[in-house]
Write a structure and sequence with these properties.
The protein is of the alpha/beta class. It contains 8 helices and 17 strands. A 6-stranded mixed beta sheet has the order 13-17-16-15-12-14.
C-alpha cells in the first residue's frame, strides 16, 4: 500500500510521526555512519544511485536522509511504511523538514564518525545540525566519479562490519521499531533465518516468527508470543477460554495501551500465552469498547474439547 506524502502536512501523518518516534530508539553499529540521500524508487537500494553507493557503503552503517520521515537506517528500508511512500524528490527542504530530520540525525549519530555523501537540502540539514562531518560530494553530484572516489577513500579509513553483525543489527532494529523499547530482546543470539521469500525466524530449533517480505515486519508464532510475554510487550489479558480465531472487545480485561491497529499482539490467560494475532483497534479502545472485534487470531492453543 502506497503512503502518499505530497505536501508538508505529511510530516504529521500518524505513520510518519510513529516512524520518527521509533527512530529515536535506534542506535548505529560500527565506527562510522554513512549519510546518503533518499531516492524516488523504494526500497532505496533498488535505485540506480544507491546501487552505485552500495558498492562502497554496504559494509558500513548506512543512514538515508529523507523527508517526511527524517531518517532511515539502511537495515530498515524494506519496512512499512518507509518501503512504500511516494514523495517528490526535489532536494529543496522547508524549515520544518530540516528541523525534524536534523534533530533525528543528531540523536542517531551521537558520538560516531560521519561521512556524508549529500548535496542540496540534504547537505544543508547535516551542516546545520551536525559537527565534524566529512563531506564527499563534489560539484553537487553525489554519483559523480569524483564524489564516489572521495566516498570510497574516506570509508577505507574505518573497519568493515561483518555479515553476522549486520544481520543481527537488522533483525533487532526491526523488532525495536515494531515492538518498541526493549524490542531488540525479541531476537535471541542464536537466531537463524530460513526461507527464500518470507524468512522464518528459528531459535533453539523452534520458529518464533516470520519476517514478512511484503511489509518488512514480523508475524508471531506462539513461541514468539512467549518471548514478548516475558518482555511485557503487546500483551492482551483475557479470563476465558479461546475457542475461535476472533477475540471480541467484551472479552478483553486489559490491553497494552501502546497497541495500535495492525500490531502483532500476545493474548494471555492466567499468565499463559493462549494466542497470537493482529490487532484490529488500539489497546485503549479494546478496554473501552463493548462490541466489535479486537484481534484477528493467527495461532491459538488448542486442547481436546477446546479446553485451555
Amino acid at each position: 500500500m502506497k503512503v502518499i506524502c505530497s505536501s508538508e502536512e505529511s510530516l504529521h501523518r500518524p505513520e510518519v510521526f510513529r516512524w520518527q518516534e521509533r527512530m529515536k530508539l535506534m542506535n548505529p553499529i560500527g565506527d562510522v555512519v554513512v549519510l546518503l540521500p533518499c531516492s524516488m524508487r523504494k526500497p532505496y537500494s533498488n535505485s540506480k544511485s544507491h546501487q552505485v553507493f552500495r558498492k562502497h557503503t554496504k559494509h558500513y552503517q548506512e543512514l538515508i536522509v529523507t523527508s517526511p520521515f527524517g531518517i532511515c537506517p539502511r537495515e530498515m528500508e524494506s519496512t512499512f511504511p518507509i518501503q512504500s511512500y511516494d514523495v517528490p524528490v526535489t532536494g529543496v527542504w522547508s524549515h520544518e523538514e530540516k528541523k525534524i530530520a536534523g534533530e533525528l540525525l543528531k540523536n542517531y549519530i551521537k558520538d560516531k564518525n560521519v561521512v556524508a555523501n549529500l548535496s542540496k537540502g540534504y547537505e544543508e540539514v547535516a551542516k546545520e545540525y551536525l559537527n565534524d562531518v566529512i563531506y564527499t560530494c563534489k560539484d553537487g553530484k553525489v554519483t559523480s566519479s569524483d564524489s564516489i572516489y572521495n566516498l570510497r577513500e574516506e570509508l577505507r579509513k574505518f573497519p568493515r562490519l561483518n555479515k553476522r553483525d549486520r544481520l543481527m543489527h537488522k533483525l533487532k532494529s526491526i523488532a525495536i521499531y515494531q515492538f518498541g523499547e526493549s524490542g531488540e530482546k525479541f531476537i535471541p543470539d542464536d537466531i537463524s533465518l530460513k526461507g527464500k521469500y518470507h524468512k522464518k525466524l528459528i531459535s533453539n530449533k523452534k520458529q518464533i516468527g516470520l519476517l514478512n517480505n511484503n511489509t518488512g515486519l514480523y508475524s508471531l508464532t506462539l513461541e514468539g508470543g512467549e518471548i514478548l510475554k516475558n518482555l511485557g510487550l503487546k500483551i492482551i489479558e483475557i479470563n476465558f477460554n479461546l475457542t475461535t480465531n476472533s477475540l471480541l472487545n467484551p472479552g478483553v480485561d486489559k490491553a497494552d495501551h501502546s497497541i495500535i491497529p495492525k500490531d502483532e499482539v500476545v493474548i494471555i490467560k492466567d499468565d499463559e500465552v493462549v494466542g497470537v494475532g493482529r490487532s484490529i483497534i488500539s489497546g485503549k479502545e479494546m478496554e473501552e469498547s463493548n462490541r466489535g472485534m479486537a484481534v484477528k487470531i493467527r495461532k491459538r492453543v488448542k486442547k481436546r474439547n477446546n479446553l485451555i
